[in-house]
Amino acid sequence: MRFSKIALPLFALSGISLVYAGPIAYGLCQTGCNTVAVACYAGAGLTFGTVVAAAAAPAAAIACNVALGTCSATCATVALLAPTP
């Protein structure tokens, strides 16, 4: 017998609710991060996704990438753990 068949009725009777981690919140957060990265690139006169060589990348592109990495890491640590009703 599966655990969920036993646990779900027990949770329902005890008032404990099941909460799933936030994949929807994570996806929305990542979309926000990518939107800001595209705007950052555009502000520097670049097109996001077209700068190929890291060594030849302008300093503005590197700064945008660092900001994107920080934002994405924050999404992974915060939004994935957020409850989704």
UniProtKB/TrEMBL annotation:
Signal peptide: 1-21
Entry keyword Signal: yes
UniProt key word Signal: yes
Keywords, sorted A to Z: Signal
UniProt protein name: Proteophosphoglycan 5
Organism in which the protein naturally occurs: Mycena sanguinolenta
